[in-house]
Amino acid sequence: MNFSEFDKFDFFRFSPKVQCMPLVHGDGIFSECAYEFLLNNKIDAIALPLPVSFKNSVFEGILYLPEITIAGYFEPGGKRFGYAAISPCNAVISAAKIGFQEKIPVYFIDFEVEYFSQINPSICFTRFNARIFLRCACTIFQQTGI
């Protein structure tokens, strides 16, 4: 896979300044593609599909790469534990590393674990509407000037 041909897919471009990069977690090829794409394009910011509670441990784990570490936390009450592998084969971590090294702002935009524990899992797949999601995302991008 080569992301230099990525611009052919308008579906992944939400606006002239916002583009989504589909990645497979834990796949070294996607990790290399993330490096290639982020280093060969002008990037203003990187949004990661991880909750903000992971931020410090992710950036600390990046310092130990290529060793594999884990970023994790217990949710309030200690009933659940969330984690992410900090690995050179994780494309999301590769994107975070590029942001860290190149001083590109990195945003952790996913919900915390406790948010998902309140959602009926069947709703996630039966009621998801991609058009509504993209329309909402584009509205947010326009309002924030992204």
Number of domains: 1
Q: Biggest sheet, open or closed, and with what strands and sense? A: 2 strands, antiparallel
Q: Strand-and-helix sequence, N→C?
A: EEHEHEEHEHHH
Rg is: 16 Å
Quick structural overview:
With 146 residues, the protein is α+β, with helices and mostly antiparallel strands. Helices cover 39% and strands 19% of the residues. The mean pLDDT is 75.
Which terms would index this structure?
39% helix; globular; alpha+beta; 146 residues; two-stranded antiparallel ribbon
Describe this protein's structure:
With 146 residues, the protein is an alpha+beta fold. The chain has one domain. Helix content is 39%, strand content 19%. The strands form three sheets. Strands 1-2 form a two-stranded antiparallel ribbon. Strands 3-6 form a two-stranded parallel sheet. Strand 4 and strand 5 form a beta hairpin.
Produce the secondary structure layout:
Layout: E1 13-15, E2 18-19, H1 28-39, E3 46-51, H2 55-62, E4 69-74, E5 81-86, H3 91-102, E6 106-110, H4 113-116, H5 121-126, H6 130-144
Parallel strand pairs: 3-6
Antiparallel strand pairs: 1-2, 4-5
Helix pairs in contact: 1-3
